[in-house]
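Intended use. Records like the one below are meant for learning the mapping from a protein sequence to its folded structure. Do not use them to infer anything beyond what is encoded.
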Amino acid sequence: MTRLRWGILGCAAIADRAVIPAIHASETGELLAIASRSEDKARSKAEQFGIPKFYGSYEALLADPEIDAIYIPLPNHLHKEWTIAAAQAGKHVLCEKPLAMNAREAQEMVDGCKEAGVHLAEAFMYRHHPRIARVKEIVASGEIGELRGIRGVFTYNGTANKEDIRQVKEWGGGALYDVGVYPLSAARLIMGVEPEAVTVQALFSPEHDDVDMMASGLVEFPGNVALTFDCGMWASFRNELEIVGTDGTIVLKPSFVPSKETDDITIQVGDKVRREGPYGVDAYVAQSDQFARTVWGEEPPAYSPQDAVDNMRLIDACLASARTRQRIVL
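Structure written out for the chain above:
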């Protein structure tokens, strides 16, 4: 069986915890190489996960003719540089969210990959889970009535780790980049249209390099429907998405990082409550397989690369609103 041959740039925790196991478990992929700026670190990861090759530089991995696709879990400020380098080396790219530091960078990445003739995808694994398609189906069916609002929360307390790159401003740190992207992208996906305006309040912490450690906001969509959200890296853990209609609600809890045992949906219409699932699906595996089938031309992209640019435009507006304490019209 043909398999997509993967290489990974960097030794990030998300790769260890989720993406490496997902590629190993996928129907379509095999992980051939990992690179780090430290050859010893790359060797250690290769031995830990049974990866055949390791490299002491990112350039060396990109020069490997046996690699078809690159997964990039590097800090946010390095996404653009190494996505474009991978594209120029003829490699397809799965880049961690957020795709870039801003919409301008994201557009340059999309254009660079298009010019090179390679597939680019933003690694929003939750979007590939079947329950997301099911949520859209329920909303479209009218079962919960007319859509009135969406509520999304994603918070955790990461302050114990003083070396966390998510607390470095120049590297793209902050709650909106790290976890706010989830409810924002989910609302855009469920609504099927782009928002009109945003108003965001944030805690920019001097103790944490002035990144937004907590943010709360209102995202206005056409038709007088809004997303209310909060996200944070200095708060108790919460992870929930609620879609509210005139006749009922849909709740995903946990929403953006479900396990195979907790990936269910709760639907309430009037006094009647039902639960669908659990589906028992690993969203990271689903993401890996969908990416490969797109590369092979068997399926269209689940989400266009331009969608990532649109999501970055929304993040840009949220950050601008939080910094200026003003409503930003998109």
